[in-house]
């Protein structure tokens, strides 16, 4: 609670290994005599308040094993008495303060966060001279998603590093199904004239020539390749209708033809991530099926109705 800030004569505050939730009170910045803050192994969220930079007597800062996020305040560079900084196993990201000027610093642990090379590359050599400096591994970057395309299309596999390279010392390597792709050494990777053999799981691994012994990895991109729609699909396309569209929560799929076989209905968001998949059997007669979208957020989505030799696509709009 914020009332902790009234305990101005405290020299140590231990709340570790509980089930504490919520944010770190900014009022803790009033405890200017504190030399130890230990809040590890809880479920704290939010950011570290900049007010904690007032704790000029602080020697040990321990926020590891929480769900804290955001950047570490740059004002922490002025905490000259800091000896031990435990930040590992959170969701921190962004440029790390320059702790290399802290004369008493002995330990810095920042692994299992969302830091990238450029966030601490400039001070890496100085940190390596500490008694303890741990920074690897870091959590995977970008979201896992599924991309569905037709044969013959060009497909660009993207990564965070394409727009945020962070360092000229980075090197990149894309992998398909666990095997390095020859020549795929940029932050993005393009598949040209896609073929069925291009379907698979893709990841990107990033290394850095300065920050050694750390490899960053992109979450998996699954690429699905379908047959290019031909005349039969164009005919099938005319037989498919969706209503109501826009919808407030459910859409009816109607197919008026004599096709017999399995139907797969899959819905994707605008990033290509699959959010719903259903399978049905069509027996050669007209088909109608109500599909519920109650648990899916408002927005624009792509629905693909696949049969054994092709598919048709429809844009749907959810507005609840």
Architecture overview:
This protein is mainly beta and 320 residues long. The chain is 4% helix and 37% strand. The chain contains two helices and 25 strands. The protein has a six-stranded parallel sheet, with no helix packed on it. Strands 11, 13, 14, 16, 17 and 18 form a six-stranded mixed sheet that branches. The chain has a four-stranded antiparallel sheet with strand order 22-21-24-25. A hairpin with a 5-residue loop joins strand 21 and strand 22.
Would you spell out the secondary-structure blueprint of this structure?
Layout: E1 12-14, E2 21-22, E3 36-38, E4 43-44, E5 60-62, E6 69-70, E7 84-86, E8 91-92, E9 107-109, H1 124-127, E10 132-134, E11 145-150, E12 155-157, E13 170-176, E14 179-180, E15 189-191, E16 200-208, E17 216-217, E18 221-226, H2 231-238, E19 240-243, E20 250-255, E21 260-268, E22 274-283, E23 287-292, E24 299-307, E25 310-318
Parallel strand pairs: 1-3, 2-4, 3-5, 5-7, 6-8, 7-9, 9-10, 11-18
Antiparallel strand pairs: 12-15, 13-14, 13-16, 16-17, 16-18, 19-20, 20-23, 21-22, 21-24, 24-25
Which descriptors would you attach to this protein?
mainly beta, 320 residues, six-stranded parallel sheet, 2 helices, 4% helix
The order of strands across the largest sheet is 1-3-5-7-9-10
The biggest sheet amounts to: 6 strands, parallel
Count of β-strands: 25
Number of helices: 2
Low-confidence stretches: none
Q: Residue-averaged pLDDT, rounded?
A: 93
Distance between the termini: 38 Å
Q: Structural class of the helix and strand makeup?
A: mainly beta
SSE pattern, N- to C-terminal: EEEEEEEEEHEEEEEEEEEHEEEEEEE
Report the sheet-strand fraction. Answer: 35-45%
* Residues in helix, %: under 10%
Q: Which of globular, elongated, flat, extended, rod-shaped describes the shape?
A: elongated
State Rg. 26 Å
Quaternary structure annotation: single chain
């Amino acid at each position: 609670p914020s009332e902790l800030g009234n305990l101005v004569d405290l020299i140590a505050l231990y709340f570790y290994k509980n089930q504490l939730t919520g944010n770190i009170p900014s009022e803790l910045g009033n405890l200017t005599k504190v030399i130890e803050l230990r809040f590890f192994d809880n479920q704290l969220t939010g950011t570290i308040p900049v007010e904690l930079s007032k704790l000029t007597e602080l020697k040990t800062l321990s926020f590891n094993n929480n769900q804290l996020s955001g950047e570490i305040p740059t004002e922490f560079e002025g905490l000259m008495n800091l000896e031990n900084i435990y930040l590992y196993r959170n969701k921190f990201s962004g440029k790390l303060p320059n702790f290399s000027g802290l004369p008493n610093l002995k330990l810095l642990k920042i692994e299992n966060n969302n830091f990238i090379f450029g966030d601490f590359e400039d001070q890496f050599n100085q940190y390596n001279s500490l008694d303890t400096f741990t920074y690897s591994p870091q959590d995977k970057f970008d979201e896992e998603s599924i991309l569905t395309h037709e044969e013959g299309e060009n497909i660009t596999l993207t990564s965070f590093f394409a727009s945020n390279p962070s360092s000229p010392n980075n090197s990149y390597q894309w992998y398909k199904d666990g095997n390095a792709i020859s020549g795929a050494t940029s932050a993005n990777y393009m598949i040209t004239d896609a073929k069925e053999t291009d379907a698979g799981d893709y990841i990107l691994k990033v290394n850095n020539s300065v920050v050694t012994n750390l490899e960053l990895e992109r979450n998996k991109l699954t690429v699905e390749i379908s047959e290019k729609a031909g005349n039969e699909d164009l005919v099938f396309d005319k037989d498919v209708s969706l209503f109501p569209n826009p919808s407030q929560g459910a859409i009816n799929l109607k197919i008026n033809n004599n096709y017999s076989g399995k139907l797969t209905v899959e819905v994707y968001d605008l990033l290509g991530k699959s959010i719903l998949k259903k399978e049905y059997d069509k027996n050669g007669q007209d088909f109608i099926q109500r599909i519920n979208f109650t648990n899916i957020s408002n927005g624009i989505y792509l629905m693909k109705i696949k049969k054994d030799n092709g598919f048709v696509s429809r844009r749907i709009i959810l507005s609840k």
